[in-house]
Design goal:
homodimer; alpha/beta; UDP-N-acetylmuramoyl-L-alanine:D-glutamate ligase; nine-stranded mixed beta sheet; four-stranded mixed beta sheet
């Protein structure tokens, strides 16, 4: 295996308050960049770019440091850390956002330190698309660039979203966002529209139903989710998916359709571990041997 | 391959009025028994047991006769045929039932003709669970028995539903029904409850997201749906799934976990054809070579 490529992750570091039928956690570490970084660092060197307030307990990021995640790009600004509060319903398919307090995240203007700018892989988690476009310019030699977004930006900054899609290697989007963005009556038709806009491939996330990978001139790849008897907390599952997928691609430096499929499976499997625990609990201590064991178990679930 | 076992199908023959974003059809042939019979007869000899009113155009069943479906059990009673009217929303995930007129179906008391009673396979489509239990007693030598139901009976006749599950080889149920029936927080936990009640295996239908097969002491089988760029009308997809699955099992007379998985895949693929057309349009002319070609295409979509 070649030496792993570096990944720069730009997104949020947050303090989440989460309520599910299984329990409640207050001001617990969260944020897209944390989940993505934690998952990607299982495979590749990661540079984290984010902002926190001066109320943020920096020691909570120690587990990332131990995985040799470069935190130089995590800036501390005077003010409050981004806080999010969400509540999940019984079957976990739906959640209500109770509270969003942007704090210092509102003024976030990502500046890549030299080390982060030299990474060849980039994961743009959900932030203002104008900032995502700006980060893209800061990367010196991008080899594989992926982005995620939310409905808010699809509605408010449609032009910038289209410009991003034009420049992406991988668009990671959930089924509802894809429908809002394209108006298409099926995931395949929606993904085809994004391919026409310019991205090299599309990964449609369907939560507990798995994901579909759609590339140009390729047979789509159907990846059902690893089924859990007791899902505990879906927070961060989508970010874990993206992080592990990109991490695996960076570690293998192989962009063939076959390896992309394996990357999607590893992303899906990593996400299943996240959902098994509360917040970052499970992802924080996840090991390669656990991932590989579940990968084999998963294969036995889809063979026929 | 051994000679195919016979399947008896008990359910409804209806006149459906369907509205989707792609069009509208009035009083078109439908009903669970018709979809199941049409799909199962692609693989095995079928005996249909149902009731229609004296307003029913019997010639509309000619295509089943041509597939050598035995219609001796389809009784004509004075009165109106069961009519159902439904409207699908844009993304086809949800439908509203506009109208249900039971007509002669309200007094349906299924009596199996001798030929139907001698079949070894039985598919009990959704009817009153008391009647389903009664049909079960009429079968002389059941080898593989499957049933489907709806929320109405799960709410109103819970005891009978549990008795049926105890006697079933295969319970075919959708995700919402399973949640209502078991109160479980996940499909796996719900399916396990049904296995504890006594059925040998459970197939959970998830519509456009595919199906999961859960058996005792076996690794679950995840079967994502064949993706369609232009789904036209989901009416009858679940019944097509059940029919093709049972038909394949009856044709192969092989109840091994491996063959069950293939049967689920064939069910899923047959259902995808039904959704591609309006009402029975596509299923009516479906050929084995089309099914086999899509089976191969599907395999290429799930390999990694």
């Amino acid at each position: 295996m070649p030496s792993a490529e570096h990944i720069t992750v730009v997104g949020s570091v947050a303090l989440d308050t989460i309520e599910t039928p299984y329990g409640r956690a207050e001001d617990t570490l969260g944020g897209s960049a944390v989940y993505i970084g934690a998952a990607a660092s299982l495979y590749s060197p990661v540079h984290l770019v984010a902002v926190v307030g001066d109320d943020f307990p920096m020691e909570s990021l120690d587990f990332l440091r131990e995985r040799e995640v470069d935190l130089e790009g995590v800036r501390v600004e005077p003010g409050s850390t981004f806080r999010w509060e969400g509540r999940y319903h019984r079957n976990m398919n739906r959640r209500d956002t109770i509270r969003t307090e942007l704090g210092v995240f509102e003024g976030f203007r990502p500046e890549l330190p030299a080390s982060a700018a030299e990474a060849n892989y980039l994961m743009l988690a959900n932030i203002d698309p104008d900032l995502q476009l700006d980060v893209l310019k800061q990367l010196k030699d991008p080899q594989l660039v992926a982005f995620d977004t939310i409905k808010h930006w699809i509605r408010d900054k449609h032009g910038q979203i289209e410009e991003l899609i034009r420049q992406m290697d991988v668009v990671i989007i959930n089924d509802e966002e894809l429908e809002l963005l394209t108006g298409a009556g099926s995931l395949l038709a929606g993904a085809d529209q994004l391919l026409e806009m310019g991205t090299r491939c599309v990964v449609v996330k369907k939560g507990e139903h798995g994901a579909i990978l759609v590339g140009r001139d390729e047979v789509p790849f159907l990846c059902p989710a690893y089924p859990l008897a007791e899902p505990k907390d879906p927070t961060g599952a989508g970010d874990t998916f993206a992080g592990a997928m990109l991490g695996y691609l960076a570690a293998t430096s192989d962009h063939s359709p076959f390896n992309f499929r394996r990357a999607v499976v590893y992303g899906s499997i990593a996400a299943s571990f996240t959902v098994e625990g509360f917040g970052l609990d499970r992802l924080m201590n996840l090991t390669h041997s656990e991932l590989d064991a579940r990968f084999r178990e998963y294969r036995a679930m889809v063979e026929f």
